[in-house]
Input
Amino acid sequence: MIVPVGKIVKGGGMLYPYKGIWPEVADSCFIAPGARIIGDVKVGHESSIWFNCVVRGDVGKIRIGDRTNIQDGSVLHVDSGGNDTIIGNDVLIGHMAMIHGTSIEDEGFIGFSAMTMDGSLVKNKGMLAAGSLLSPGKVVGSGEMWRGRPAKFARALSLNEYKAFAKGAGKYVQTAKYYLDEYS
Output
Protein backbone atom coordinates (compact mmCIF):
# COMPACT_ATOMS: atom_id res chain seq x y z
CA MET A 1 0.00 0.00 0.00
CA ILE A 2 1.35 3.41 -0.99
CA VAL A 3 0.56 6.23 1.42
CA PRO A 4 0.86 9.76 -0.03
CA VAL A 5 3.55 11.87 1.56
CA GLY A 6 2.21 15.08 3.02
CA LYS A 7 3.80 18.38 3.94
CA ILE A 8 3.56 19.91 7.38
CA VAL A 9 2.65 23.61 7.24
CA LYS A 10 2.97 26.44 9.76
CA GLY A 11 0.90 25.46 12.76
CA GLY A 12 1.29 21.71 12.27
CA GLY A 13 -1.51 20.82 9.83
CA MET A 14 -0.90 18.66 6.79
CA LEU A 15 -1.17 19.22 3.05
CA TYR A 16 -1.63 16.32 0.63
CA PRO A 17 -1.71 16.22 -3.17
CA TYR A 18 -4.49 14.70 -5.23
CA LYS A 19 -3.63 13.69 -8.80
CA GLY A 20 -0.49 15.80 -8.51
CA ILE A 21 -2.30 18.97 -7.39
CA TRP A 22 -1.10 20.39 -4.07
CA PRO A 23 -3.09 22.80 -1.90
CA GLU A 24 -1.87 26.41 -1.79
CA VAL A 25 -1.91 28.09 1.62
CA ALA A 26 -0.87 31.71 2.26
CA ASP A 27 2.12 32.07 4.59
CA SER A 28 0.04 34.05 7.10
CA CYS A 29 -2.44 31.17 7.68
CA PHE A 30 -2.69 28.97 10.73
CA ILE A 31 -3.41 25.33 9.93
CA ALA A 32 -3.82 23.47 13.24
CA PRO A 33 -2.40 20.06 14.08
CA GLY A 34 -4.78 17.35 12.90
CA ALA A 35 -6.14 19.46 10.04
CA ARG A 36 -5.85 17.88 6.60
CA ILE A 37 -6.02 19.84 3.33
CA ILE A 38 -6.11 17.79 0.15
CA GLY A 39 -5.89 18.61 -3.56
CA ASP A 40 -7.19 21.67 -5.40
CA VAL A 41 -7.55 24.01 -2.42
CA LYS A 42 -6.40 27.62 -2.05
CA VAL A 43 -6.48 29.39 1.32
CA GLY A 44 -6.17 33.20 1.55
CA HIS A 45 -4.22 35.47 3.89
CA GLU A 46 -4.73 35.35 7.67
CA SER A 47 -7.27 32.53 7.41
CA SER A 48 -7.29 29.68 9.89
CA ILE A 49 -8.26 26.04 9.73
CA TRP A 50 -8.56 24.57 13.19
CA PHE A 51 -7.99 21.23 14.86
CA ASN A 52 -9.19 18.10 13.05
CA CYS A 53 -10.74 19.78 10.02
CA VAL A 54 -10.78 18.16 6.59
CA VAL A 55 -10.73 20.32 3.46
CA ARG A 56 -10.87 17.93 0.49
CA GLY A 57 -10.60 19.35 -3.03
CA ASP A 58 -10.47 16.17 -5.04
CA VAL A 59 -13.37 16.07 -7.53
CA GLY A 60 -13.55 19.89 -7.69
CA LYS A 61 -11.95 22.97 -6.22
CA ILE A 62 -12.18 24.69 -2.86
CA ARG A 63 -11.34 28.36 -2.45
CA ILE A 64 -11.17 30.05 0.95
CA GLY A 65 -10.75 33.83 1.12
CA ASP A 66 -8.84 36.08 3.50
CA ARG A 67 -9.42 36.21 7.29
CA THR A 68 -11.85 33.30 7.14
CA ASN A 69 -11.89 30.63 9.82
CA ILE A 70 -12.94 27.03 9.63
CA GLN A 71 -13.46 25.90 13.21
CA ASP A 72 -12.61 22.58 14.85
CA GLY A 73 -13.93 19.35 13.36
CA SER A 74 -15.49 20.89 10.24
CA VAL A 75 -15.49 19.17 6.85
CA LEU A 76 -15.40 20.97 3.50
CA HIS A 77 -15.85 19.01 0.29
CA VAL A 78 -17.06 19.50 -3.28
CA ASP A 79 -19.82 17.98 -5.38
CA SER A 80 -18.80 15.64 -8.19
CA GLY A 81 -21.73 17.10 -10.14
CA GLY A 82 -19.80 20.34 -10.62
CA ASN A 83 -20.50 22.43 -7.52
CA ASP A 84 -17.22 23.70 -6.13
CA THR A 85 -16.93 25.09 -2.60
CA ILE A 86 -16.16 28.81 -2.71
CA ILE A 87 -15.84 30.73 0.56
CA GLY A 88 -15.32 34.48 0.67
CA ASN A 89 -13.47 36.82 3.01
CA ASP A 90 -14.19 37.24 6.75
CA VAL A 91 -16.42 34.15 6.89
CA LEU A 92 -17.06 32.33 10.17
CA ILE A 93 -17.68 28.58 9.94
CA GLY A 94 -18.55 27.11 13.34
CA HIS A 95 -17.35 23.92 14.96
CA MET A 96 -18.36 20.62 13.34
CA ALA A 97 -19.94 22.23 10.25
CA MET A 98 -20.33 20.27 7.01
CA ILE A 99 -19.94 22.39 3.86
CA HIS A 100 -20.55 20.50 0.60
CA GLY A 101 -20.50 22.03 -2.88
CA THR A 102 -21.57 25.41 -1.50
CA SER A 103 -20.69 29.08 -1.98
CA ILE A 104 -20.51 31.38 1.04
CA GLU A 105 -20.03 35.05 0.25
CA ASP A 106 -18.05 37.62 2.27
CA GLU A 107 -18.95 37.94 5.96
CA GLY A 108 -21.22 34.89 5.87
CA PHE A 109 -21.77 32.90 9.06
CA ILE A 110 -22.33 29.16 9.43
CA GLY A 111 -23.28 28.06 12.96
CA PHE A 112 -22.06 25.06 14.96
CA SER A 113 -22.94 21.68 13.40
CA ALA A 114 -24.77 23.30 10.47
CA MET A 115 -24.76 21.57 7.08
CA THR A 116 -24.92 22.93 3.54
CA MET A 117 -25.65 20.80 0.51
CA ASP A 118 -24.80 20.86 -3.18
CA GLY A 119 -25.44 24.07 -5.06
CA SER A 120 -26.55 26.06 -2.02
CA LEU A 121 -25.50 29.66 -1.46
CA VAL A 122 -25.13 31.90 1.59
CA LYS A 123 -25.03 35.49 0.38
CA ASN A 124 -23.04 38.37 1.87
CA LYS A 125 -23.70 38.69 5.62
CA GLY A 126 -26.14 35.78 5.53
CA MET A 127 -26.36 33.32 8.42
CA LEU A 128 -27.20 29.63 8.68
CA ALA A 129 -28.01 28.99 12.35
CA ALA A 130 -26.44 26.25 14.47
CA GLY A 131 -27.66 22.73 13.72
CA SER A 132 -29.45 23.75 10.53
CA LEU A 133 -29.50 21.92 7.19
CA LEU A 134 -29.47 24.02 4.00
CA SER A 135 -30.98 21.83 1.27
CA PRO A 136 -29.50 21.59 -2.25
CA GLY A 137 -29.89 24.74 -4.31
CA LYS A 138 -31.32 26.90 -1.49
CA VAL A 139 -30.16 30.52 -1.11
CA VAL A 140 -29.76 32.38 2.17
CA GLY A 141 -30.21 36.02 1.19
CA SER A 142 -27.96 38.90 2.20
CA GLY A 143 -28.64 39.84 5.82
CA GLU A 144 -30.96 36.88 6.41
CA MET A 145 -30.91 34.20 9.09
CA TRP A 146 -32.14 30.75 8.15
CA ARG A 147 -32.63 27.91 10.64
CA GLY A 148 -34.08 24.44 10.99
CA ARG A 149 -33.83 21.05 9.28
CA PRO A 150 -34.51 21.80 6.50
CA ALA A 151 -33.54 25.44 6.96
CA LYS A 152 -36.05 28.16 6.20
CA PHE A 153 -35.96 31.94 6.42
CA ALA A 154 -36.32 32.96 10.09
CA ARG A 155 -35.69 36.72 10.15
CA ALA A 156 -33.50 39.60 9.07
CA LEU A 157 -30.27 40.07 11.01
CA SER A 158 -29.69 43.21 13.06
CA LEU A 159 -26.84 45.70 12.77
CA ASN A 160 -25.56 44.53 16.17
CA GLU A 161 -25.38 40.96 14.87
CA TYR A 162 -23.30 42.10 11.88
CA LYS A 163 -20.93 43.90 14.23
CA ALA A 164 -20.58 40.76 16.36
CA PHE A 165 -19.70 38.70 13.25
CA ALA A 166 -17.01 41.22 12.29
CA LYS A 167 -15.54 41.03 15.80
CA GLY A 168 -15.61 37.23 15.63
CA ALA A 169 -13.62 37.14 12.39
CA GLY A 170 -11.06 39.59 13.83
CA LYS A 171 -10.83 37.58 17.05
CA TYR A 172 -9.97 34.42 15.10
CA VAL A 173 -7.26 36.26 13.15
CA GLN A 174 -5.68 37.34 16.47
CA THR A 175 -6.05 33.91 18.06
CA ALA A 176 -4.45 32.27 15.02
CA LYS A 177 -1.48 34.64 15.31
CA TYR A 178 -0.95 33.56 18.93
CA TYR A 179 -1.04 29.92 17.88
CA LEU A 180 1.41 30.56 15.04
CA ASP A 181 3.84 32.12 17.54
CA GLU A 182 3.59 29.10 19.85
CA TYR A 183 3.56 26.37 17.19
CA SER A 184 6.29 27.73 14.91
About this structure: The mean pLDDT is 95. The chain has one domain: 7-174. The chain is about 15% helix and 35% strand.
